[in-house]
Amino acid sequence: MLQQRLIDALGADAVKTSPEDMSVYAFDAYSQGRNPSAVVLPADVRDVSAAVKIARECREPIVARGAGTGLCGGAVPIEGGVVIAFARMHRLLELDVRRRRARVQPGLINLDLSRAVAEMRLFYAPDPSSQKASTIGGNIATNAGGPHCLSYGTTVNHVLGLEIVDENGEVFTTSIDDAGYDLTAALVGSEGTLGIVTAAWVRLMRLPESVRVWVVAFGEIEAASEAVSAIVAAGIVPSALEMMDAVITAAVEEAFHAGYPTDAAAVLLIESAGLEDDMNAYEAAIKHIVEAHGAISWRSARTQAERDALWAGRKGAAGATGRISPNYYTQDVCVPRSKLPAALRAVEEAAGAHRLVVGNVFHAGDGNLHPLLMYDRRDARQVAAVIETGNAILQSAIDLGGTISGEHGIGYEKRDAMTRVYSTDDLATMARVRDVFDPQRVLNPEKIFPRGARCPEVKPPTLVQ
Ligand SMILES: Cc1cc2nc3c(=O)[nH]c(=O)nc-3n(C[C@H](O)[C@H](O)[C@H](O)COP(=O)(O)OP(=O)(O)OC[C@H]3O[C@@H](n4cnc5c(N)ncnc54)[C@H](O)[C@@H]3O)c2cc1C
Description:
Blueprint: H1 2-10, E1 15-16, H2 19-23, E2 31-32, E3 38-40, H3 45-57, E4 62-65, E5 82-85, E6 92-96, E7 101-104, H4 110-117, E8 122-123, H5 136-142, H6 149-152, E9 159-165, E10 171-175, H7 183-187, E11 196-203, E12 205-206, E13 210-218, H8 221-233, E14 240-245, H9 246-256, E15 266-274, H10 276-292, E16 295-300, H11 304-315, H12 317-320, E17 327-330, E18 333-334, H13 340-353, E19 358-362, E20 368-369, E21 371-375, H14 380-399, H15 418-421, H16 424-437, E22 462-463
Parallel strand pairs: 3-5, 4-5
Antiparallel strand pairs: 1-3, 2-22, 6-7, 7-11, 8-12, 9-10, 9-11, 13-15, 13-16, 14-15, 14-19, 17-21, 18-20, 19-21
Helix pairs in contact: 1-3, 8-10, 8-13, 9-11, 13-14
The structure holds flavin-adenine dinucleotide (FAD).
Protein backbone atom coordinates (compact mmCIF):
# COMPACT_ATOMS: atom_id res chain seq x y z
CA MET A 1 0.00 0.00 0.00
CA LEU A 2 2.67 2.54 1.08
CA GLN A 3 5.09 1.53 -1.65
CA GLN A 4 2.43 1.50 -4.39
CA ARG A 5 1.12 4.91 -3.37
CA LEU A 6 4.65 6.36 -3.46
CA ILE A 7 5.24 4.83 -6.91
CA ASP A 8 1.92 6.24 -8.18
CA ALA A 9 2.82 9.71 -6.93
CA LEU A 10 6.56 9.92 -7.72
CA GLY A 11 7.07 7.31 -10.47
CA ALA A 12 8.73 3.90 -10.21
CA ASP A 13 12.22 5.33 -10.90
CA ALA A 14 12.00 7.47 -7.79
CA VAL A 15 11.07 4.74 -5.33
CA LYS A 16 13.24 1.87 -4.06
CA THR A 17 11.42 -1.06 -2.57
CA SER A 18 13.61 -4.16 -2.89
CA PRO A 19 15.24 -5.26 0.39
CA GLU A 20 18.69 -5.16 -1.30
CA ASP A 21 18.22 -1.59 -2.56
CA MET A 22 16.76 -0.43 0.74
CA SER A 23 19.52 -2.03 2.84
CA VAL A 24 21.96 0.60 1.50
CA TYR A 25 19.87 3.24 3.26
CA ALA A 26 19.97 1.42 6.61
CA PHE A 27 23.54 2.70 7.17
CA ASP A 28 25.43 5.87 7.81
CA ALA A 29 29.16 6.16 8.49
CA TYR A 30 28.57 5.27 12.16
CA SER A 31 25.98 2.57 12.32
CA GLN A 32 23.43 0.23 10.79
CA GLY A 33 19.75 0.55 11.65
CA ARG A 34 16.68 -1.21 10.24
CA ASN A 35 15.72 -1.40 6.60
CA PRO A 36 13.19 1.34 5.81
CA SER A 37 9.71 0.52 4.47
CA ALA A 38 10.51 2.50 1.30
CA VAL A 39 13.15 4.87 -0.05
CA VAL A 40 12.20 7.81 -2.25
CA LEU A 41 14.52 9.87 -4.43
CA PRO A 42 12.54 13.08 -5.06
CA ALA A 43 13.21 15.29 -8.07
CA ASP A 44 11.76 18.45 -6.53
CA VAL A 45 9.93 19.93 -3.56
CA ARG A 46 6.56 18.68 -4.86
CA ASP A 47 7.84 15.09 -4.67
CA VAL A 48 9.07 15.66 -1.10
CA SER A 49 5.74 17.11 -0.08
CA ALA A 50 3.83 14.22 -1.69
CA ALA A 51 6.08 11.62 -0.05
CA VAL A 52 5.62 13.18 3.40
CA LYS A 53 1.83 13.30 2.99
CA ILE A 54 1.69 9.65 1.93
CA ALA A 55 4.01 8.56 4.74
CA ARG A 56 1.81 10.40 7.24
CA GLU A 57 -1.36 8.82 5.92
CA CYS A 58 0.28 5.39 6.14
CA ARG A 59 1.54 6.19 9.68
CA GLU A 60 5.18 5.80 8.73
CA PRO A 61 7.99 7.98 10.14
CA ILE A 62 10.18 10.00 7.77
CA VAL A 63 13.98 10.17 7.71
CA ALA A 64 15.76 12.71 5.48
CA ARG A 65 19.09 11.59 4.06
CA GLY A 66 21.97 13.37 2.32
CA ALA A 67 25.10 11.37 1.56
CA GLY A 68 25.00 9.21 4.71
CA THR A 69 28.44 10.38 5.89
CA GLY A 70 27.01 11.25 9.30
CA LEU A 71 28.91 9.88 12.29
CA CYS A 72 26.15 9.53 14.88
CA GLY A 73 23.42 7.44 13.24
CA GLY A 74 21.39 10.56 12.32
CA ALA A 75 20.24 9.37 8.88
CA VAL A 76 19.70 5.77 9.98
CA PRO A 77 16.09 4.57 10.14
CA ILE A 78 15.56 3.11 13.59
CA GLU A 79 11.84 2.35 13.29
CA GLY A 80 11.83 1.72 9.52
CA GLY A 81 9.67 4.35 7.77
CA VAL A 82 10.22 6.31 4.58
CA VAL A 83 13.73 7.52 3.79
CA ILE A 84 13.81 10.64 1.62
CA ALA A 85 17.23 10.63 -0.03
CA PHE A 86 18.37 13.77 -1.84
CA ALA A 87 20.79 12.32 -4.39
CA ARG A 88 18.69 13.59 -7.33
CA MET A 89 18.20 17.10 -5.91
CA HIS A 90 21.81 18.17 -6.32
CA ARG A 91 21.65 21.36 -8.39
CA LEU A 92 22.93 24.89 -7.90
CA LEU A 93 19.66 26.71 -8.64
CA GLU A 94 20.66 30.38 -8.63
CA LEU A 95 23.83 32.36 -8.21
CA ASP A 96 23.82 36.02 -7.19
CA VAL A 97 27.46 37.06 -7.54
CA ARG A 98 26.83 40.68 -6.62
CA ARG A 99 25.18 39.77 -3.32
CA ARG A 100 27.47 36.76 -2.89
CA ARG A 101 24.77 34.19 -2.32
CA ALA A 102 23.53 31.00 -3.96
CA ARG A 103 20.29 29.03 -3.86
CA VAL A 104 20.99 25.31 -3.83
CA GLN A 105 19.16 22.01 -3.61
CA PRO A 106 19.91 20.00 -0.46
CA GLY A 107 21.64 17.13 -2.27
CA LEU A 108 24.35 19.39 -3.73
CA ILE A 109 27.73 18.09 -2.58
CA ASN A 110 29.56 20.65 -0.45
CA LEU A 111 32.76 20.79 -2.53
CA ASP A 112 30.79 21.00 -5.80
CA LEU A 113 29.42 24.35 -4.66
CA SER A 114 32.87 25.85 -4.04
CA ARG A 115 34.10 24.40 -7.33
CA ALA A 116 31.15 25.88 -9.23
CA VAL A 117 31.79 29.41 -7.94
CA ALA A 118 35.61 29.38 -7.89
CA GLU A 119 35.75 31.04 -11.32
CA MET A 120 34.02 34.07 -9.77
CA ARG A 121 36.69 34.01 -7.00
CA LEU A 122 34.05 32.92 -4.46
CA PHE A 123 33.80 29.92 -2.14
CA TYR A 124 31.46 28.32 0.41
CA ALA A 125 33.30 28.48 3.74
CA PRO A 126 32.04 25.53 5.87
CA ASP A 127 34.37 22.72 4.80
CA PRO A 128 33.83 19.45 6.71
CA SER A 129 36.58 16.94 5.96
CA SER A 130 33.79 14.92 4.30
CA GLN A 131 33.13 17.77 1.85
CA LYS A 132 33.89 15.66 -1.24
CA ALA A 133 30.85 13.53 -0.36
CA SER A 134 28.59 15.21 2.20
CA THR A 135 25.68 17.38 1.06
CA ILE A 136 24.64 20.93 1.84
CA GLY A 137 21.34 19.56 3.26
CA GLY A 138 23.17 17.16 5.59
CA ASN A 139 25.61 19.93 6.55
CA ILE A 140 22.70 22.25 7.40
CA ALA A 141 20.91 19.55 9.40
CA THR A 142 24.07 18.86 11.46
CA ASN A 143 25.39 22.45 11.53
CA ALA A 144 28.61 21.00 10.14
CA GLY A 145 31.97 22.47 11.02
CA GLY A 146 35.33 22.01 9.35
CA PRO A 147 38.95 23.18 9.54
CA HIS A 148 38.12 26.68 8.27
CA CYS A 149 35.19 27.21 10.65
CA LEU A 150 37.68 28.52 13.24
CA SER A 151 37.70 31.89 11.49
CA TYR A 152 34.59 31.73 9.26
CA GLY A 153 32.11 30.14 11.70
CA THR A 154 30.10 26.94 11.28
CA THR A 155 27.28 26.26 8.81
CA VAL A 156 24.74 28.30 10.80
CA ASN A 157 26.74 31.43 10.00
CA HIS A 158 26.42 30.77 6.27
CA VAL A 159 22.74 29.88 5.80
CA LEU A 160 20.64 32.88 4.80
CA GLY A 161 17.30 31.19 4.27
CA LEU A 162 15.60 27.84 3.90
CA GLU A 163 12.75 26.15 2.08
CA ILE A 164 11.29 23.52 4.37
CA VAL A 165 8.73 20.75 4.00
CA ASP A 166 7.05 20.32 7.37
CA GLU A 167 5.67 17.23 9.10
CA ASN A 168 2.35 17.59 7.19
CA GLY A 169 4.01 17.94 3.81
CA GLU A 170 3.36 21.70 3.66
CA VAL A 171 6.08 24.03 2.36
CA PHE A 172 7.32 27.15 4.16
CA THR A 173 10.34 29.40 3.78
CA THR A 174 12.52 31.25 6.25
CA SER A 175 15.00 34.09 5.84
CA ILE A 176 17.47 35.69 8.21
CA ASP A 177 16.20 39.01 6.82
CA ASP A 178 12.75 38.39 8.34
CA ALA A 179 11.89 40.29 11.50
CA GLY A 180 10.99 38.30 14.61
CA TYR A 181 12.28 34.89 15.60
CA ASP A 182 15.24 33.59 13.58
CA LEU A 183 13.68 30.32 12.42
CA THR A 184 16.53 29.72 9.99
CA ALA A 185 18.99 29.38 12.86
CA ALA A 186 16.52 27.20 14.80
CA LEU A 187 16.31 24.77 11.89
CA VAL A 188 20.08 24.57 11.30
CA GLY A 189 21.46 21.71 13.38
CA SER A 190 18.03 20.18 14.03
CA GLU A 191 19.10 16.89 12.41
CA GLY A 192 15.95 16.42 10.34
CA THR A 193 13.67 16.51 13.41
CA LEU A 194 12.00 19.89 12.81
CA GLY A 195 11.59 19.92 9.03
CA ILE A 196 13.06 18.72 5.76
CA VAL A 197 15.34 21.12 3.89
CA THR A 198 14.38 21.23 0.21
CA ALA A 199 16.38 24.34 -0.76
CA ALA A 200 18.75 26.78 0.92
CA TRP A 201 20.12 30.24 0.31
CA VAL A 202 23.76 30.20 1.39
CA ARG A 203 26.39 32.89 1.81
CA LEU A 204 29.46 32.81 -0.43
CA MET A 205 32.77 34.34 0.59
CA ARG A 206 35.37 36.06 -1.56
CA LEU A 207 38.54 33.99 -1.99
CA PRO A 208 41.33 35.63 0.04
CA GLU A 209 44.06 37.57 -1.73
CA SER A 210 46.76 35.54 -0.06
CA VAL A 211 46.96 32.18 1.72
CA ARG A 212 49.90 30.76 3.64
CA VAL A 213 50.15 27.29 5.13
CA TRP A 214 52.72 26.17 7.68
CA VAL A 215 53.54 22.75 9.10
CA VAL A 216 54.98 22.86 12.60
CA ALA A 217 56.36 19.76 14.34
CA PHE A 218 56.59 19.16 18.09
CA GLY A 219 58.41 16.52 20.16
CA GLU A 220 55.47 16.35 22.59
CA ILE A 221 51.70 16.54 22.09
CA GLU A 222 51.39 18.63 25.23
CA ALA A 223 53.70 21.31 23.82
CA ALA A 224 51.69 21.43 20.58
CA SER A 225 48.41 21.87 22.50
CA GLU A 226 49.93 24.63 24.65
CA ALA A 227 51.04 26.38 21.46
CA VAL A 228 47.47 26.23 20.09
CA SER A 229 46.08 27.94 23.21
CA ALA A 230 48.87 30.51 23.11
CA ILE A 231 48.27 31.44 19.44
CA VAL A 232 44.58 32.16 20.04
CA ALA A 233 45.24 33.82 23.41
CA ALA A 234 47.59 36.22 21.59
CA GLY A 235 44.59 37.44 19.57
CA ILE A 236 45.64 35.67 16.37
CA VAL A 237 42.84 33.78 14.60
CA PRO A 238 44.38 31.70 11.82
CA SER A 239 41.96 30.58 9.11
CA ALA A 240 42.65 26.99 10.23
CA LEU A 241 44.55 25.44 13.13
CA GLU A 242 44.60 21.65 12.98
CA MET A 243 46.54 19.02 14.90
CA MET A 244 47.58 15.47 14.05
CA ASP A 245 49.54 13.04 16.21
CA ALA A 246 52.22 10.56 15.11
CA VAL A 247 49.76 7.69 14.54
CA ILE A 248 47.85 9.84 12.06
CA THR A 249 50.80 11.47 10.26
CA ALA A 250 52.31 7.99 9.69
CA ALA A 251 49.04 6.75 8.13
CA VAL A 252 48.59 9.95 6.10
CA GLU A 253 52.12 9.86 4.73
CA GLU A 254 51.77 6.23 3.74
CA ALA A 255 48.51 6.96 1.93
CA PHE A 256 49.08 10.43 0.46
CA HIS A 257 52.81 11.40 0.66
CA ALA A 258 51.47 14.80 1.63
CA GLY A 259 54.67 16.22 3.13
CA TYR A 260 54.14 15.83 6.89
CA PRO A 261 57.10 14.95 9.13
CA THR A 262 56.71 11.44 10.57
CA ASP A 263 59.30 11.79 13.34
CA ALA A 264 57.23 14.23 15.43
CA ALA A 265 54.85 13.44 18.30
CA ALA A 266 52.44 16.08 16.99
CA VAL A 267 52.12 18.31 13.96
CA LEU A 268 50.17 21.54 13.63
CA LEU A 269 48.78 22.55 10.24
CA ILE A 270 48.29 26.30 10.40
CA GLU A 271 46.75 28.43 7.66
CA SER A 272 46.44 32.19 7.46
CA ALA A 273 44.31 33.89 4.82
CA GLY A 274 43.93 37.58 4.11
CA LEU A 275 45.81 40.49 2.60
CA GLU A 276 49.31 39.76 1.30
CA ASP A 277 50.60 42.85 3.15
CA ASP A 278 49.60 41.32 6.51
CA MET A 279 51.08 37.89 5.93
CA ASN A 280 54.69 38.47 6.99
CA ALA A 281 53.57 39.92 10.30
CA TYR A 282 51.21 36.96 10.92
CA GLU A 283 53.94 34.50 10.03
CA ALA A 284 56.45 36.15 12.37
CA ALA A 285 53.96 36.27 15.26
CA ILE A 286 52.91 32.63 14.90
CA LYS A 287 56.51 31.44 14.44
CA HIS A 288 57.56 33.30 17.57
CA ILE A 289 54.82 31.61 19.64
CA VAL A 290 55.38 28.06 18.41
CA GLU A 291 59.15 28.36 18.90
CA ALA A 292 58.59 29.59 22.43
CA HIS A 293 56.56 26.41 22.97
CA GLY A 294 59.30 24.08 21.80
CA ALA A 295 58.53 23.54 18.09
CA ILE A 296 61.21 21.28 16.59
CA SER A 297 60.63 22.21 12.95
CA TRP A 298 58.77 24.79 10.85
CA ARG A 299 58.00 24.52 7.14
CA SER A 300 56.17 26.91 4.84
CA ALA A 301 54.28 25.40 1.93
CA ARG A 302 55.68 27.31 -1.05
CA THR A 303 53.30 26.44 -3.83
CA GLN A 304 49.58 25.87 -4.30
CA ALA A 305 50.37 22.22 -5.10
CA GLU A 306 52.18 21.82 -1.73
CA ARG A 307 49.26 23.44 0.10
CA ASP A 308 46.75 21.25 -1.69
CA ALA A 309 48.75 18.11 -0.84
CA LEU A 310 48.86 19.04 2.86
CA TRP A 311 45.11 19.67 2.92
CA ALA A 312 44.35 16.49 0.98
CA GLY A 313 46.36 14.59 3.62
CA ARG A 314 44.56 16.31 6.49
CA LYS A 315 41.08 15.83 5.03
CA GLY A 316 41.83 12.25 4.05
CA ALA A 317 43.31 11.37 7.46
CA ALA A 318 40.38 9.26 8.68
CA GLY A 319 40.35 7.18 5.50
CA ALA A 320 44.14 6.81 5.67
CA THR A 321 43.81 4.86 8.92
CA GLY A 322 42.67 1.97 6.70
CA ARG A 323 46.45 1.47 6.30
CA ILE A 324 46.81 0.57 9.96
CA SER A 325 43.49 -0.85 11.12
CA PRO A 326 40.47 -2.62 9.59
CA ASN A 327 38.05 -0.29 11.41
CA TYR A 328 38.07 2.93 13.39
CA TYR A 329 35.53 4.67 15.57
CA THR A 330 35.51 8.49 15.64
CA GLN A 331 34.66 10.22 18.89
CA ASP A 332 33.68 13.91 18.64
CA VAL A 333 33.91 16.00 21.79
CA CYS A 334 34.69 19.62 22.54
CA VAL A 335 36.64 21.13 25.44
CA PRO A 336 37.73 24.67 26.30
CA ARG A 337 40.96 25.24 24.31
CA SER A 338 42.97 25.69 27.50
CA LYS A 339 41.97 22.15 28.52
CA LEU A 340 43.36 20.49 25.36
CA PRO A 341 46.46 19.03 27.07
CA ALA A 342 44.33 17.46 29.83
CA ALA A 343 41.77 16.19 27.31
CA LEU A 344 44.48 14.53 25.21
CA ARG A 345 45.94 12.91 28.33
CA ALA A 346 42.48 11.56 29.17
CA VAL A 347 42.15 10.13 25.63
CA GLU A 348 45.52 8.40 25.97
CA GLU A 349 44.58 6.96 29.38
CA ALA A 350 41.15 5.75 28.24
CA ALA A 351 42.55 4.02 25.14
CA GLY A 352 45.53 2.67 27.10
CA ALA A 353 43.24 1.02 29.64
CA HIS A 354 41.95 -1.21 26.81
CA ARG A 355 45.22 -1.39 24.89
CA LEU A 356 43.59 0.30 21.91
CA VAL A 357 45.63 2.25 19.38
CA VAL A 358 44.31 5.81 19.16
CA GLY A 359 45.11 8.46 16.56
CA ASN A 360 44.24 12.12 17.11
CA VAL A 361 43.36 14.39 14.19
CA PHE A 362 41.30 17.41 15.07
CA HIS A 363 40.26 21.04 14.90
CA ALA A 364 42.64 22.12 17.67
CA GLY A 365 41.82 25.83 17.36
CA ASP A 366 38.20 25.05 18.29
CA GLY A 367 39.09 22.60 21.09
CA ASN A 368 37.19 20.00 19.04
CA LEU A 369 38.82 16.58 19.51
CA HIS A 370 38.41 13.60 17.18
CA PRO A 371 40.19 10.60 18.70
CA LEU A 372 40.05 7.72 16.19
CA LEU A 373 39.99 4.40 18.03
CA MET A 374 41.39 1.55 15.93
CA TYR A 375 39.73 -1.84 16.16
CA ASP A 376 38.60 -4.90 14.29
CA ARG A 377 34.83 -5.21 14.30
CA ARG A 378 34.99 -8.97 13.80
CA ASP A 379 36.27 -9.18 17.38
CA ALA A 380 33.41 -8.61 19.87
CA ARG A 381 35.84 -7.83 22.70
CA GLN A 382 37.44 -5.03 20.68
CA VAL A 383 34.00 -3.64 19.82
CA ALA A 384 33.06 -3.60 23.51
CA ALA A 385 36.40 -1.97 24.37
CA VAL A 386 35.86 0.76 21.77
CA ILE A 387 32.38 1.56 23.06
CA GLU A 388 33.66 1.73 26.64
CA THR A 389 36.64 3.89 25.66
CA GLY A 390 34.45 6.22 23.59
CA ASN A 391 32.23 6.64 26.63
CA ALA A 392 35.15 7.36 28.94
CA ILE A 393 36.44 10.02 26.53
CA LEU A 394 32.97 11.57 26.40
CA GLN A 395 32.81 11.73 30.19
CA SER A 396 36.30 13.20 30.49
CA ALA A 397 35.33 16.00 28.08
CA ILE A 398 32.25 16.77 30.20
CA ASP A 399 34.39 16.72 33.37
CA LEU A 400 36.76 19.24 31.77
CA GLY A 401 33.87 21.65 31.15
CA GLY A 402 33.35 20.59 27.54
CA THR A 403 30.47 18.99 25.72
CA ILE A 404 29.38 15.77 23.99
CA SER A 405 29.65 16.87 20.36
CA GLY A 406 31.70 19.50 18.60
CA GLU A 407 30.16 19.10 15.14
CA HIS A 408 28.94 15.60 14.26
CA GLY A 409 25.66 15.98 16.14
CA ILE A 410 23.69 13.81 18.55
CA GLY A 411 21.70 11.52 16.24
CA TYR A 412 21.05 8.08 17.67
CA GLU A 413 24.50 7.54 19.14
CA LYS A 414 24.55 10.29 21.73
CA ARG A 415 20.86 10.66 22.54
CA ASP A 416 21.22 9.08 25.97
CA ALA A 417 24.35 11.15 26.69
CA MET A 418 22.15 14.28 26.47
CA THR A 419 21.15 13.64 30.10
CA ARG A 420 24.79 14.03 31.12
CA VAL A 421 24.89 17.66 29.98
CA TYR A 422 21.26 18.79 30.15
CA SER A 423 18.83 18.80 33.06
CA THR A 424 15.31 17.37 32.74
CA ASP A 425 14.03 20.96 32.48
CA ASP A 426 16.49 21.76 29.67
CA LEU A 427 15.37 18.68 27.74
CA ALA A 428 11.70 19.50 28.35
CA THR A 429 12.28 22.97 26.87
CA MET A 430 13.90 21.43 23.79
CA ALA A 431 11.00 18.96 23.50
CA ARG A 432 8.55 21.88 23.56
CA VAL A 433 10.38 23.44 20.62
CA ARG A 434 10.22 20.15 18.78
CA ASP A 435 6.52 19.81 19.52
CA VAL A 436 5.83 23.15 17.84
CA PHE A 437 7.30 21.85 14.57
CA ASP A 438 6.52 18.14 14.82
CA PRO A 439 4.05 17.29 17.61
CA GLN A 440 3.51 13.72 16.37
CA ARG A 441 7.30 13.09 16.24
CA VAL A 442 7.20 11.65 12.75
CA LEU A 443 10.33 13.44 11.52
CA ASN A 444 13.44 11.41 12.30
CA PRO A 445 12.11 9.85 15.54
CA GLU A 446 14.50 8.21 18.02
CA LYS A 447 17.10 10.93 17.46
CA ILE A 448 18.56 13.63 19.73
CA PHE A 449 16.15 13.03 22.66
CA PRO A 450 17.05 10.39 25.25
CA ARG A 451 15.04 7.18 25.32
CA GLY A 452 11.91 8.04 27.27
CA ALA A 453 8.25 7.54 27.86
CA ARG A 454 7.25 8.45 24.28
CA CYS A 455 9.80 6.12 22.69
CA PRO A 456 9.10 2.43 22.02
CA GLU A 457 11.83 -0.15 22.62
CA VAL A 458 13.98 -0.39 19.52
CA LYS A 459 16.88 -2.57 18.53
CA PRO A 460 20.06 -0.49 18.86
CA PRO A 461 21.98 -0.01 15.61
CA THR A 462 25.29 -1.81 15.13
CA LEU A 463 28.63 0.00 14.93
CA VAL A 464 29.94 -0.13 11.34
CA GLN A 465 32.90 2.27 11.15
C1 LIG B 1 35.67 10.99 6.93
C2 LIG B 1 34.64 11.90 7.55
C3 LIG B 1 35.02 13.18 7.92
C4 LIG B 1 34.07 14.05 8.49
N1 LIG B 1 34.47 15.33 8.82
C5 LIG B 1 33.56 16.18 9.34
C6 LIG B 1 33.95 17.53 9.67
O1 LIG B 1 35.10 17.94 9.49
N2 LIG B 1 33.00 18.33 10.21
C7 LIG B 1 31.71 17.90 10.41
O2 LIG B 1 30.88 18.68 10.89
N3 LIG B 1 31.33 16.64 10.12
C8 LIG B 1 32.20 15.78 9.58
N4 LIG B 1 31.82 14.50 9.27
C9 LIG B 1 30.44 14.07 9.56
C10 LIG B 1 29.43 14.26 8.38
O3 LIG B 1 30.12 14.28 7.14
C11 LIG B 1 28.63 15.53 8.57
O4 LIG B 1 27.79 15.39 9.70
C12 LIG B 1 27.79 15.94 7.35
O5 LIG B 1 27.21 17.21 7.59
C13 LIG B 1 26.69 14.93 7.01
O6 LIG B 1 26.22 15.22 5.70
P1 LIG B 1 25.47 14.09 4.84
O7 LIG B 1 25.03 14.74 3.57
O8 LIG B 1 26.31 12.89 4.69
O9 LIG B 1 24.21 13.82 5.77
P2 LIG B 1 23.60 12.44 6.30
O10 LIG B 1 24.63 11.65 7.01
O11 LIG B 1 22.87 11.78 5.20
O12 LIG B 1 22.55 13.00 7.35
C14 LIG B 1 22.98 13.65 8.53
C15 LIG B 1 21.77 14.21 9.28
O13 LIG B 1 21.15 15.22 8.48
C16 LIG B 1 19.78 14.92 8.25
N5 LIG B 1 19.49 15.40 6.89
C17 LIG B 1 20.15 15.12 5.75
N6 LIG B 1 19.62 15.80 4.72
C18 LIG B 1 18.60 16.52 5.21
C19 LIG B 1 17.65 17.42 4.65
N7 LIG B 1 17.64 17.72 3.36
N8 LIG B 1 16.72 17.98 5.47
C20 LIG B 1 16.69 17.69 6.80
N9 LIG B 1 17.57 16.84 7.39
C21 LIG B 1 18.50 16.27 6.60
C22 LIG B 1 19.67 13.42 8.41
O14 LIG B 1 18.35 13.01 8.77
C23 LIG B 1 20.67 13.18 9.54
O15 LIG B 1 20.08 13.46 10.78
C24 LIG B 1 32.74 13.61 8.70
C25 LIG B 1 32.37 12.33 8.30
C26 LIG B 1 33.30 11.48 7.74
C27 LIG B 1 32.87 10.09 7.33
